[in-house]
Design brief:
The chain is of the alpha+beta class. It has three domains: 132 residues, Sandwich (Immunoglobulin-like), CATH 2.60.40; 92 residues, Sandwich (Immunoglobulin-like); 72 residues, no CATH class. The chain has four helices and 18 strands. The strands form five sheets. Strands 2-11-10-5-6-7 form a six-stranded mixed β-sheet, with helices on one face. A four-stranded antiparallel β-sheet has the order 12-13-16-15, with no helix packed on it. A three-stranded antiparallel β-sheet has the order 3-9-8, with no helix packed on it. The radius of gyration is 41 Å and the shape is elongated. The termini are far apart. The N terminus is likely disordered.
């Protein structure tokens, strides 16, 4: 026990105790249970009710129940002990009757029951309250074994991992028809150095059925409230779907290759026509311009059947 705690005990022993449950009271301290989110500032709501306006506060002590030393001690008009970075919610205190405190950057180690004691010139009173801490799980991640090329009827293992939560939660599995597969899964919980919980669930599928995909894992907190969800779809061998980007690229490649093939075909046919025209004797047919001759040639080529095109190309082969 430190000197500050010993000093306040002497003062408490010399003054009457005023029960918080007493019907006739000089003043009463009331506190509420609180749940804080890890790594955030948490308010510890407490208030003082008094029959008198001239009550002078001498000391304030906050400690965990069952422990001797205070984690927060105010006396002699100053804060003498503050091992947990605690402050007044109202900076005008103790001139105000609001006894609310704020604990900064709350940790899991801050969980527990607390005793809050206020000493005045008319006596002292105390109240108890409970602090709980929660931490939300991060978005789950799904992996599979094997990673790819999964076939119907084969064995598949799906893994779902969610980290950084508190208290311990759970992971449930469902298929696309919302059939619960959780009974076929194994859940492991690992506690980290900072007391956070990492969840890992393995779903064993002895006879994989692609018609049930996608499978999804849902993370629930300790109160069975959903905190995260992720899904994973496994495709059968030889049936992997192309992404939209891949489909677009493939379609563009087909168009380009087709255009090149048509261009080559036209060039061969027109080259053949030019050679045949050069070898032909002059006729009484009117001379056509290059533009009209090209249009006429293209029109003629487009009207050819596949058999005629094949015949034209064979005639153009070098001897």
């Amino acid at each position: 026990m430190n000197m500050a705690s010993a000093f306040i005990l002497v003062l408490l022993a010399s003054l009457p105790f005023v029960s918080a449950e007493a019907t006739e009271y000089v003043f009463k301290l009331t506190c509420q249970d609180v749940t804080g989110v890890i790594k955030q500032d948490t308010t510890l709501p407490c208030s003082v009710e008094s029959q008198y306006n001239d009550v002078t506060i001498k000391a304030v002590s906050l400690k965990k129940k069952g422990e001797k030393d205070s984690i927060f001690l105010y006396q002699n008009k100053k804060i003498e002990v503050n091992s947990r970075d605690i402050s007044w919610a109202d900076q005008k205190w103790p001139e105000t009757v609001d006894a609310t405190l704020v604990i900064s950057n709350i940790e899991i180690s801050d969980e527990g029951k607390y005793e809050y004691t206020i000493l005045t010139d008319r006596g002292y009173t105390k109240a108890e309250f409970t602090v709980k801490v929660i931490a939300q799980y991060k978005t789950p991640i799904i992996t599979s074994r094997p990673k790819t090329d999964v076939e119907d009827g084969k064995v598949v293992d799906l893994y779902c991992n969610a980290s950084g939560g508190y208290p311990k939660g759970s992971i449930k599995w469902f298929d696309q028809y919302n059939t619960d597969w959780t009974k076929s899964a194994e859940l492991q919980a690992t506690v980290t150095e900072d007391k956070l919980v990492n969840l890992s669930s393995k779903l064993h599928i002895p006879n994989f059925d692609s018609s049930l995909a996608p499978y999804k894992c849902i993370v629930f907190n300790s109160k069975n409230v959903q905190e995260g969800e992720e899904q994973f779809e496994i495709h059968e061998t030889g049936k992997l779907e192309l992404s939209e980007k891949t489909k677009n690229v493939a379609a563009a490649a087909v168009v380009v290759i087709g255009s090149v093939a048509v261009g080559i075909l036209l060039a061969l046919l027109l080259f053949k026509r030019r050679r045949s025209q050069q070898a032909r004797r002059p006729s009484t047919r009117p001379m056509l311009s290059d533009h009209h001759r090209w249009a006429s040639d293209v029109e003629e080529v487009l009207n050819l059947s596949p058999e005629e095109i094949k015949k034209e190309l064979s005639l153009n082969q070098p001897v």
